[in-house]
Structure prediction request, 925 residues.
Amino acid sequence: MITRIAFKELLTSLLTLRFIIIVLVCCLLVPVSVTVLSNDYLAEKGDYESRMEIEASREGGHAQRVDVFRPVPQLMALFRGVSVNSVNGIQLNDDPWNEHLNSAIQSPTEAVYPTVDLTFIIGFVLSALAVILSFDALSGEKAAATLRLLMANGVPRSTVVIGKWIGLTITLLIPFLLGMVISLMIFILITGAGFNSGTWLALGLCLLTAMIFLSANVLLGIAVSAFTSTPTQSIFLALGIWGLLTILLPQIAVAAADSFAPVPSIKEVEKNIRIVTNEYHQETRDTNLAMVERALVEEWEFSQVRQARRNNEYPRETSHRHKVVEMERQYWRKVHQQEQLGRSLAMVSPFGSLNQALIALAGTGPEGQWHFIEQAYDYGVWYFDELVSDPNRPPTEDVIATMAPFEYQPQPFSAKLEAAVWPLAALCLMNLLLVIIAVFTFNRYDVR
Amino acid sequence: MKEIFLSEIRGSLSSNKLLVAFFLMLIAFLISLGMMNQEFEKRLHNYRMSLSLPAKELFWNKIFFWEFEGDDFTSSDDATMPLAKIKDPDPLIFFARGFDTEMRQGIDFMSSFPIFDINKQPEQEKNLLHLIFPAPDLLFMAKVLVSLLAMLFAFDIICGEREKGTLKLMMVAGASRGSIFTGKYLGGLVSIWIAFTGAFIIYLLALSFLTPVNLNGGAAPRIALIYLVALLHIAVFFSFGAVISAFSRSSPSSLVMTLFIWIIVVFVMPGLASLVAQQFAPVESEDTLAQMKFRKARDMEREYSEANPGSDTSRTGAYGVRHDEIRPQIVAELQKIEDEHQRRKDLQIALTSNLARISPIGSLSHLFTSLSRTGIGDVHRFREDLINLRTSLETQFSEVIRNPEFMVLWGRAGWDIPKEIKEIAEPFFDMNRTMKFSKPTLEETLGATWYDLGQLAFFAIVAAALAFTRFIFYDAR
Prediction:
């Protein structure tokens, strides 16, 4: 019986204006977005390669500074996430404060007209369309007096709800999957990129997440429909809840995380680091001056003075660097904690969960940034420690030439999955809850 | 007509539509206020910290990279900030954040060439979730919520009356179609204007008394204009709703169509405009720009070295600069590259803005951001200020270092900066007088936005006229 109701719902919906509009959105907006973002991806990739080339040919060696970069995530053309805002390069300095770089292409009008990627289309446009598709699933039938007829045939109420859910979800997923196939073809044609198994798997999971999310929105419409007696009431209530869940809740969650887990201003951290550094310079200078005075009295050779200076400076420099890097890391850990709290709170919203899961799987989320920062800092500490590890071997160009370059280790698929698993679970839970609410409410629904 | 108008308002009141709309807007505005205030306070805190150290000390710190002691300089503990001038946070960002982040740049003093560079200041915060879910400003609420409510107020003004059978009764009672439409249209519009006005007034009171915002300094007329623009925006979307209602036979079908139009006008059209502009007027990234500048400067240096063997100095910098002789030419060439980049950026911005105007949301965004001094015109003005400042500093600095006396003293300088150097460079340090950012006057803003104002009015009038024309031929049975 479920299949029959689902099939009937599917057939009825296929002939409506709602379906045509959903097809138009999926087959027009999605490919346009992917076309533009694929070109962005190509330009970003070119920038990355050019950066690496410049870095390799930089004159004068890297005694005080080395720049490291992160390759561009392939799936940024579909799910842009924070790839254009996050740290994609770090200028590691032997002097304190590693400078974080961001140089991705960003539309100059981004602040007012945000670039539309798949996350936006699925999260805002298709989710609203899902609610519009299903808001009158039950109240509309009641208004048309067909619900009574259906009940008179002895169909269990839970069967009606589940049948309608499956039928409407399939109605929505047909154009969505069609749009996705077209988009993937466009992406591969433009970029000429091939996917490895990990990327295919991530992409498959992204699609699955999107489908579960859209299904939750269909269920939201049905559940609301079971609460109200007229389609007009249904749509007002459904839109109100949709707006709250999709637009306001994630923003409130992030603001709440700000209050519960505050992070000091980056300028305060910079100031503290500068104070520590000034103390370090002062101490080194005083020790050097004392050494010079002694050298003058004892009439040292110049090479002796130089050696004594290295003996004095190198261990201090190493210890100071470790201290500063730890201060930086502490700051970043606090930011990370605040972010994690915000993300956990944002999972209350289906859109919050969807966003997190998609960008985690695509490698364009905050986790990708943290993965890079950790690696870059470890490399920086190793690099400068190594350069001054032996006072008898100053960091000449020959020594620098022997230093191993930074090699970015991509985030393993398991790490991406780990970041996506909770939002995905939250979406599944929402589906379950909404089914229970819809069935429970419809059981008490007056069909007359 | 007057009776119909009054009965429409009474209807809105008795059905609680007006109250629901008022509370929804009020809650949304207050949420926006709370979140924007959180952001504003952080911004203010960082700005104050940036001002905590006079430019002079920072200059020495950056240029000479030395520690300072003695009477003329503050203690080294305070020498913490990079020298940069950041625009003060404008309280009007509560209404529209716009391109505010683009105006967080400053002149940075580097210890290597180019000495002065325009750099983006570190973001006040690094939590990336703020980029995914940014705090909503009032413009966002107007775009998403107020537009939807305006359409929902109008979606059944005609077809709803037909369904209830009251349209026929009004006509039988002798009311002309013109007076019925005008009365219902104005009654509905005024109802939602009342709800918006109430929420807006409470929002302003909360902004004045619950936040550290000081709304003096010419903010009042701008806020009044923002309010009037919002009323016009409501009229546009109300008229759209009326058109749909006049073309529909039943409320549910009108409602579904209303929501589709809302999604297309509010989300799809501006998004498409941005995508199309990016596709047809691409702009290279800031990084590509930096690479182009680097290559140009490096190549010029190499050419000069080859043409003038033995001219290399021991000084190197970010661009591998070794020759003061060709410094002005390099600066001029780099400026050309920057200008070309800016030209391409402007082209993309103009294309996006013009395409986005197909939807009233485009015009609304322009008006709100311009009135809040965070519009694209303000970014241009700010950038011009920065370039002028950089040119002025560059000229002054060149004069200082061309002074042979200065160079001799510099060469001899040890740990402590000699007093003579400070005296020679003293006029250069009086930076605060040159570091002022100009703000547009209200006349200038209105001059730049009259087109958008006209366009919004055009949308409202044409949609209302279309609804009216359709209603003339509407089958009331």
Summary: Chain A touches chain B through 91 residues (CB under 8 Å). Residues 1-448 of chain A form one domain. Residues 302-346 of chain A form the longest helix (45 residues). Chain A is about 75% helix and 5% strand.
